[in-house]
Each structure stands twice: as structure tokens, then as C-alpha cells.
Amino acid sequence: MKISIIGSGFAGLAAASYLAAQGMDVTVYEKNKQLGGRARQYKKDGFLFDIGPTWYWMPDVFEKFFADFGKKPSDYYQLEKLSPAYQVYFGEHDHISIPSTLEEICEVFEKEEKGSSDALKKFLAKAENNYEIAVKDLVYRPGVSPLELITPKTITKLNQLFYAIRKQVNKGFKNVRLKKILEFPVLFLGAKPSNTPAMYNFMNWADFGLGTWHPKGGMYEVVHAMVAMAKELGVTFVTNAAVESIQVNQHSEVSSFVVNNEKIETDILLSGADYHHTETLLPTSYKQYSEAYWKKKVFAPSALLFYVGFSRKVKEVEHHALFFDEEFDAHAEFIYDNPAWPDNPLFYASFPSKTDAAFAPEGKEAATFLIPIAPDLEDTPEIREKYFDLILKRLERLTGQELKDAILFKESYCVNDFVEDYNSYKGNAYGLANILTQTAFLRPSIKSKKVKNLFFTGQLTVPGPGVPPALISGKIAAESILKSLGK
Predict the structure, then answer these.
(1) By CB neighbour count within 10 A (0-12 exposed, 13-18 middle, 19+ buried), where does 321 fall?
(2) Is the pTM of this model over 0.90?
(3) In the β-sheet with 254-259, what is the strand arrangement from edge to edge?
(4) What would the mean pLDDT of 14-19 be, rounded to a whole number?
């Protein structure tokens, strides 16, 4: 049985291994010259950058993935638990560092707001319980029926689907700084705290309970690991292989697809590429979702990214740093309500060379900066430069140091690049936002409703955006394919 997979992102790589392990003949076709989808790597002058994901959360999901093949992450890469996990800046020389243990985190909260450590323990007890239900069970379901969400455990949680995380946080905490820290993990879901069901507080358990980790050599080491394991299982990879069209026969089955003007026959086609783009490759009558459908969807943000090499170490910052010195709600309005370039954006910075010498020459610093923005915005060199200057001045002011003269080089990445490199719908970076009306069976389907042997995986289908969900999506897609074959 010949199975072809479009795209070598985390979802495509995961699906490839699951299918190959069942004896399928699997070939992965990657548009770009480097495998990994959005999780590619950039090297320059001895500096190293993860182009895409930089956070390693939910280590148990990675462990479960490799365990399915009798392996462990440590068979392929080395993990370090970060301490502090990250820091949050609120003003000049004013930041909170989040430690790596719950006991220490409680001490930090108590220092900020008396009595808040008890509230945090109660909050996290609920978050851990939700994590057990959601991440260890519900997210592995294929999203074909609302009944998947109804279990003896979830019945008691239904009320959490109909009020937001923000309401839950406000009920337990008064300190504005602590509220911002507790709402931060929701950003990984690509939605606003005011619009995300409280059930999703399981992300707080992922944060405080399971911790923030770093794979030595960066997130691309996880890609290396998955590719290596897939090859061990017999998967073939083809790079520089953009799919140009998909042919469907009179039996409503994919018969072949075209890559670099070459027609390739296949028994089953699985797309880990952008869902919307994949459907544009089909004959019009075989599209499941109209343009109107996609336009109505709430997308997670896109991003303006900068990869910067500094000639000296950046002081006063940790491996992961969040700059929340401006108002999140004001920034979020520019993303979700009135899409436009934000006036005073929040931003995130990663300084992996603080932890890992592989990222920069000795005495120098590698930095990645990210500003969340609305998809489909105007993207010009002038706009990129304006926002780099803005966040650099903020970084200098907040940390009390001059940095402009230490810049050796910088590269940027934004909406136009997401479209060019990934055929991303409107240049989005993270897929569909995880709001109630886009959860589980309400997301685009894993299995095409119109083409019998066409399947989808990745951030626009179940379970949602993020690296761990992508691994899970690959497993769900592989299981759906095997089920269709009676296996």
C-alpha cells in the first residue's frame, strides 16, 4: 500500500512513522529544501536559530510518541529543564522569573499577593485534572462526533466550556501581574483569555506542573530525531518537492498528484500542508470547504520574527523572556477584533545561547524576537524595520543597556514568508484558534468528505495548534487511514 504525505512538519513526520510501522510504503514530499515544516533551522556566522517553535512543553506527549515505537526521546536528544522556566517583564528592571518547581512558584506568587499561593494550588489542582482528561484522552480522539467529548469525567466539566479562563483567573487572583502570568499559556492556543474556555486551563499545568524544557541543540533536534526514526522504519523523504496539483478519478479517489511536473501515483494521500492550500490543488468540485467558510474562521495570530546575532551577551534576560509592559487586551484587539499593526505590541524574546553554547560563538548572543500580529496584514521591509526599532528600544529601556551597536546581523520573517514557504492561509503562523466553536468535531475534518482516500493532518485540523498537538494530529490521521484500510 503506497501512502504519500505532503509536508514534513511534526504532524506529517509523526503520521509517517505510525504508518510505516504498520508496513505501509510511505514517502514524504517536502516543498522546502530542509525537512521540518515550520520547525526549520537557520545558521549564519556560527549562530544557530530555530526558525519556528522555540518552546518545549508537555514532555509527556513526546515521551508517549517515542514510546509507541519502543523508543525514548533520550535515544535521540538530550533535554534540560530550564530554571527559571522564563521571565516576564512588566516595566524597567521590573520582572518576575518563574522557577522550575511548584514550591518555588508558590513562593513567588505569595510574595506578589498574600494568600495567592493557596489560590494557585487550588487552581492548579483543577488544571492538572483537566490535563489528565484533555491531553491524555480527549485530544487523541478523531473529531468526528460531539459524542467524543461526552464521558463520565467530562460531564462534570461541561460548565468549564461555557465561561472563559479569564473569569476563572479573576475569581482567584487580584494581582494584575499574576493574572497576566496565568493567562499567558493561553497564547499557545492562539486565542484570547477572554474567549477561551476555562477547560483549557490545562495549559497552566503544562506550564507550572510539567515545566519548560530545552532540547540541547534546539527544537530542530526533535525534527532530526523524528526523521531518523522514520527512516529506521523505512520512510522515504523527498525535498524541494512542491505539489502542484492533485488528480481525482471517477471513483472519487486520488489517483495521482504532480510534483515538479512529475506525475506520481498513490493509493492514499495525506496532507500535512496548509489545509486550505491543499484543497486548492483539487478539482473545484472536490473541495469540502468554500472560501466563505475559511473567511469566517477565527485564526490564531501570524508573527513578525527577527533572528539577531549580537556581538556580546545581552544582560538582564533569561532563555525565554516575555515583555508584558504593555496591555495585552489592547494588543489583542489589533489581532482579533480590528486587524491592524499594533501600536504598542507585547513581544517575546528567546536567548537560547544563555543555556546552550551551540547557538552562538563564545561571548556572543543569539536572539529570536516575536511579535504576534493579525494574519493577512501588509508586510513591507519598512514596516518590519519600524517594529524592530520599536522592540529594540523597549528591550534597551527595560533592561537598562545599549544593544544597537552590538548587532552583527538580523534577519526577519513575516506574513509574506509564511505564505511563500508554507502556502499558509493569509500568512497565519499557528492555524485555527482554539475557541469553543472551533474545538474537536467543529474543526476541519481529518478525512475528506468528498475524496475517499484523501486525509489531512496538522494545525488546521484536530486537535489544534502547537507542537504536541501536531504529534497527536499525526497519530490521529494515521489511525484514520489504517481504519479505512480495515487495520
Answers:
(1) buried
(2) yes
(3) 243-248, 254-259, 262-265
(4) 98
